[in-house]
Write a structure and sequence with these properties.
The chain is an alpha+beta fold. It folds into two domains: 198 residues, FAD/NAD(P)-binding domain, CATH 3.50.50.60; 145 residues, D-Amino Acid Oxidase, Chain A, domain 2 (2-Layer Sandwich). It has eleven helices and 20 strands. The strands form four sheets. The protein has an eight-stranded mixed sheet, with helices on both faces. Strand 19 and strand 20 form a beta hairpin. The protein starts with a strand and ends in a 12-residue tail after the last helix. The mean pLDDT is 94. One of its GO terms (molecular function) is glycine oxidase activity. It is an enzyme of class 1 (oxidoreductase).
């Protein structure tokens, strides 16, 4: 008999899991309190950059990110084919810019371990950097180049995922408002007080991002997932003056095919508030002109914010509960939801199919690691 999965959350993680589960023959109903892709997913810059954004050591999180990057070429084609929609997937590579001689030694140390994990990085001097990025600030003395990193245009990617889910037979119920968990230890039952409807299944997958942290009482466990407001701005640059994803210690700048240059991200703790603030955008403006001087005289044409689901230890909650075969978590991906979407979907589907999904590698992401109530 076909198992039916209730997926709680319609962000990039919930949509990706729903799509992969449906591809493998599961019945899937996705429940979203607002609109699909309405928070961190649609607001993301869409960078697929595990080397640039994980700079300290090859820990379990880095390995999960790298595994997901390697899935992306086939994954994005599958989403496009299933949805009938196109979205930008650009293998531009990335540059991590250096300003001081002391940065060179740090970059060399990073190369030592990252190249052992397939980075194929290249340390560029100032002349080589300016050949690749002619508009870079004159103060930059070089960069570490990662040719294998890429990015997607997140709003279109999330729309394609939603359409792929619908076309493959995922039942999507959005606009539900907060839901009540009626049953999760032996099967799954979820009720929407706003609609009065009750949804039943064999499995419940919690993939509702920052809102997972509000469900501690329902599941009798600590779920330290908190919303971090990330503010981003974009500039109109039809001549595409930036060719790569460009990182520095303060943030990133990435050009999109639609002629926009995205700059991010300014973060703060503001609960579930998604209002854009002048202070937040000013933080971005304070440094991006030092990276690309032409930005110093420009004003963003678009400013937005999304809620990033952060955990205490920086690792997502991913896997089954020890107390129930009916409940799985895929939440708390913080800034890496877009990058981690294919690997999370594969891990969840593998677990439900009883396949080996690298059990020891998943141990650091165990959902009950923060404690269970007696």
């Amino acid at each position: 008999m076909t198992q039916h999965v209730l997926v709680l959350g319609g962000g990039v993680i919930g949509l990706s899991c729903a799509f992969e589960l449906r591809r493998r023959g599961f019945g899937v109903t996705l429940l979203e309190q607002g609109r699909c892709g309405g928070q961190a997913s649609g607001a993301a810059a869409g960078m697929l950059a595990p080397y640039s954004e994980n700079v300290e050591e090859p820990d379990a999180f880095f390995r999960l990110c790298l595994r997901s990057l390697n899935l992306y070429p086939d994954w994005q084609l599958a989403v496009k084919e299933a949805s009938g929609l196109d979205f930008e997937y650009s293998a531009t590579g990335s540059l991590y810019v250096m300003y001081h001689d002391a940065d060179v030694q740090a970059m060399e140390s990073r190369r030592l371990w990252q190249d052992g994990h397939g980075a194929k990085s290249e340390l560029l001097d100032a002349a080589e950097l300016r050949r690749l990025e002619p508009h870079i600030a004159p103060e930059a003395i070089g960069a570490l180049r990662y040719p294998g990193e890429s990015h997607v245009y997140a709003p279109d990617y999330v729309k394609a995922l939603e359409e792929a889910c619908r076309r493959t037979g995922v039942v999507i119920r959005d606009g539900l408002g907060p839901v009540d968990i009626l049953r999760w230890q032996d099967g799954a039952e979820v009720r929407s007080p706003a609609s009065g409807e009750t949804y039943r299944g064999d499995i419940l997958l919690v993939a509702n991002g920052a809102w997972a942290g509000l469900m501690e009482e329902a599941f009798g466990m600590a779920i330290p997932v908190y919303p971090i407001r990330g503010q981003i701005c974009a500039y109109e640059t039809p001549e595409m003056p930036v060719r790569h994803m460009v990182f520095c210690s303060q943030g990133y700048v990435v050009g999109k095919r639609n002629g926009t240059l995205v700059c991010g991200a300014s973060e703060d703790v503001a609960g579930f508030e998604t209002t854009v603030t002048r202070r937040g955008i000013a933080r971005l403006e304070s440094w991006n002109g030092k990276l690309f001087p032409f930005l110093g005289g420009m004003r963003p044409f678009h400013e937005w914010a999304g809620l990033r689901p952060a955990t205490h230890d920086g690792f997502p909650l991913l896997g089954r509960l020890r107390r129930s075969d009916s409940l799985l978590f895929a939440a708390g991906h913080y800034r890496n939801g877009i990058l981690l979407s294919p690997v999370t979907a594969h891990v969840v589907a593998d677990l439900l199919e009883g396949r080996d999904s690298s059990g020891p590698e998943l141990a650091p992401f165990e959902p009950e690691r923060f404690g269970v109530r007696a």
